[in-house]
Design brief:
A hairpin with a 3-residue loop joins strand 1 and strand 2. The longest helix is centred in the first third of the chain and has 22 residues. The model has no long low-confidence stretch (mean pLDDT 92). The chain is elongated. The chain has two domains: 42 residues; 55 residues, HU Protein, Chain A (Irregular), CATH 4.10.520.10. By secondary structure, the protein is an alpha+beta fold. Strands 1-2-5 form a three-stranded antiparallel beta sheet. Strands 3-4 form a two-stranded antiparallel ribbon. The protein is 42% helix and 29% strand. It is built from three helices and five strands.
């Protein structure tokens, strides 16, 4: 399996491909992350065109099972973050349906 690209490797790659410095690229990535978390908190959705959508969702309380003992347990309701890939990116990575 290929090694996952680190933040510094991503910054270096983007700096090489653009005329921006590493510090500027890192600033852009950090500000995008800040904007995503702020917008998702405020409106429940953050859209990055061509990349995907960060969505807040509410999960209902439900009954689960302890896998070790088999006894039923109550799983409380909670809010979760989900990321939905844009169709164009999904098709580019997986290949479109033929």
């Amino acid at each position: 399996m290929a090694k996952t690209m680190t933040k510094s490797a991503t910054v270096a790659y983007l700096a090489e491909k653009t005329s921006l410095s590493r510090k500027q690229i890192e600033g852009i990535l950090d500000e995008t992350l800040n904007l995503a978390s702020k917008e998702a908190k405020k409106s429940g959705v953050f859209l990055l065109p061509g990349f995907g959508k960060l969505v807040l969702a509410n999960r209902k309380a439900r009954m689960g099972r302890n896998p070790q003992t088999g006894e039923p347990i109550k799983i409380p309701a909670k809010r979760v973050c989900k990321f939905r890939l844009a169709k164009s990116l999904k098709d580019a990575v997986l290949g479109g349906k033929k």
